[in-house]
Every structure is written in structure tokens, then in C-alpha cells.
Write a structure and sequence with these properties.
Layout: E1 2-6, E2 18-21, E3 38-55, H1 59-67, E4 74-86, E5 90-96, E6 100-103, H2 112-128
Parallel strand pairs: 1-3
Antiparallel strand pairs: 2-6, 3-4, 4-5
């Protein structure tokens, strides 16, 4: 997949080079709707510090507990959260607390004015996205 996106990442990733790898088992994407290999559009929120609830036991065990009406134990973790609004697919989100991240030191930082504009731009994506 190639990303051709306009906008700025959240302050924790702005000005940084992010490399990430999924160390867990993968599965094929569904055939429909088709996912465009060129994702062109506007950035929503891109952060490596999104808070997410994650199970403290294997997923299969947790889902079996949920099916039985039980509540599996959870913890709060930082998750990589990549959101954008593409011309071809609307709102796209990649989110996981399992990814292995490599984040460079920032080459630059957002000014307070740029951060305010980034938030406005991310909110505007919701209003324009055909999938929202």
C-alpha cells in the first residue's frame, strides 16, 4: 500500500519517521469492499500513544469468556493509531497495541498554531468522509 496523504501527525509523531511491524499472525483482507493500494487523501489522527484496552489473556480465551457472559481481565496500553480519509475508501484506521514500533527523534515540532489547525483538519475529515 502506498500512502499519499496531506496533513500533520499528532504531536508525538509529528516530524518523526515511523516504522512499524506486525509481529502477530496476519490474515487476508476481505475481497469486498476493495481496498485501493494507493491511499490518497487527508490525515485524521496519527499517534503512537492512543490509549486502548487490551486483554491480559490470549484473545481466544477472552472471546470464549465474553461468549459465556464473563468479563476477561484487561489493561490499558499505548496503541499505534493511524487514521486517514481516503478518496477511494473513505475513513481508514489501522490500530494495534501489538505492533513493534521504531520512531525517530523529531526533525521538527508543531507550533501551537499548527497543532490547533491539525485538530481542525482531523475533525473536518469526519464531515467529508463518505464512510463516517
Amino acid at each position: 500500500m502506498k500512502l499519499d496523504l496531506e496533513g500533520n501527525a499528532c504531536p508525538d509523531l509529528a516530524g518523526c519517521l515511523l516504522k512499524f511491524k506486525n509481529p502477530t499472525k496476519t490474515f487476508p483482507m476481505r475481497k469486498k469492499p476493495e481496498f485501493n493500494p494507493l491511499q490518497r487523501g487527508k490525515i485524521g489522527n496519527l499517534s503512537a500513544s492512543q490509549k486502548a484496552r487490551v486483554f491480559t489473556i490470549p484473545d481466544e480465551e477472552a472471546f470464549a469468556m465474553i461468549d459465556r457472559g464473563e468479563k476477561p481481565s484487561e489493561r490499558i496500553a499505548n496503541a499505534l493509531y493511524l487514521e486517514w480519509f481516503s478518496e477511494g475508501n473513505g475513513r481508514v484506521v489501522i490500530e494495534s497495541a501489538d505492533f513493534e514500533l521504531n520512531i525517530s527523534a523529531p526533525e521538527w515540532r508543531l507550533s501551537p498554531e499548527e497543532e490547533k489547525q491539525r485538530v481542525k483538519d482531523a475533525e473536518a475529515g469526519w464531515r467529508c468522509s463518505p464512510s463516517s
